[in-house]
């Protein structure tokens, strides 16, 4: 079997409810912009946004750093920018996974220049062993070992995003 379940749908959903409650408690007032990083975070955003009970504004940002394979190209570029200004707002970046940290450290720098009241990160998954750039991730769903994972929005060559669980893509599994 090329896929091995690492986190089940139930585990993911339970954790997201906890994160939603924590975010509600941490942001009692003010505008909260959820910035979903395309494409991998779209499933997490859909569930996290509904686990948060306060008002939010949902935005999408496209960042590319990875290319088609399993390793980062090291280059980061914004492929789709926000539609609204975040000046004076609380910004919560919603990301699928923090790996080297290159993408998020770049993004934090870009968003901080726009003078928001605050910028924080919510990431479903964190692979701390792989970090090359320091990034402070305020809300982490799960810390996972250094293995390539797919499902729940995460892909390998655009495949597997629709899996309900997070699975490890075992060595030897072919890209589409
Ligand atoms: P970083 O800049 O190295 O932290 O890369 C983060 C991005 O790489 C994530 O937003 C994902 O799109 C992608 N990525 C990192 N690790 C994985 C993985 O295990 N599976 C799928 N995508 C990954
Ligand atoms: Mg991503």
- Give the termini separation: 16 Å
Report Rg.
Answer: 16 Å
> SSE order, as H and E?
EHEHEEEHEEEE
Indicate the structural class.
Answer: alpha/beta
Mean pLDDT: 93
What would your notes on this structure say?
Helix 1 packs across helix 2. The protein has helices at 9-26, 42-51, 102-112; strands at residues 3-7, 32-38, 57-64, 77-80, 90-98, 118-126, 139-143, 149-150, 166-169. The strands form two sheets. Strands 4-3-2-5-6-7 form a six-stranded mixed sheet, with helices on both faces. The longest helix has 18 residues, at 9-26. The chain is globular. The protein is built from three helices and nine strands, in the order βαβαβββαββββ. Helices cover 22% and strands 30% of the residues. The protein starts with a strand and ends in a 7-residue tail after the last strand. It is α/β, with parallel strands linked by helices and 176 residues long. The mean pLDDT is 93.
List the helices and strands and how they pair.
Blueprint: E1 3-7, H1 9-26, E2 32-38, H2 42-51, E3 57-64, E4 77-80, E5 90-98, H3 102-112, E6 118-126, E7 139-143, E8 149-150, E9 166-169
Helix pairs in contact: 1-2
Residues 37, 40, 96 line the site of magnesium ion (MG).
Characteristics:
single chain, six-stranded mixed β-sheet, 9 strands, binds magnesium ion, 22% helix, three-stranded antiparallel β-sheet, 176 residues, binds inosinic acid, alpha/beta
Briefly say what this structure is:
22% of the residues lie in helices and 30% in strands. It is of the alpha/beta class.
């Amino acid at each position: 079997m090329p896929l091995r379940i690492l986190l089940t749908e139930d585990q993911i959903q339970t954790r997201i409810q906890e994160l939603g409650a924590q975010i509600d408690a941490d942001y009692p007032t003010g505008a909260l912009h959820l910035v979903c990083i395309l494409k991998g975070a779209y499933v997490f955003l859909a569930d996290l946004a509904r686990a948060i009970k306060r008002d939010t504004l949902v935005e999408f940002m496209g960042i590319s750093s990875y290319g088609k394979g399993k390793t980062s190209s090291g280059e980061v570029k914004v492929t789709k920018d926000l539609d609204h200004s975040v000046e004076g707002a609380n910004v919560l970046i919603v990301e699928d996974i923090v790996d080297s940290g290159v993408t998020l450290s770049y993004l934090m720098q870009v968003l901080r220049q726009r003078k928001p009241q605050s910028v924080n990160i919510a990431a479903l998954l964190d692979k701390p062993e792989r970090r090359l750039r320091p990034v402070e991730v305020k809300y982490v769903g799960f810390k996972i070992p250094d293995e390539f994972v797919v499902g729940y929005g995460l892909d390998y060559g655009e495949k597997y995003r629709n899996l309900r669980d997070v699975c490890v893509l075992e060595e030897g599994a072919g890209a589409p």
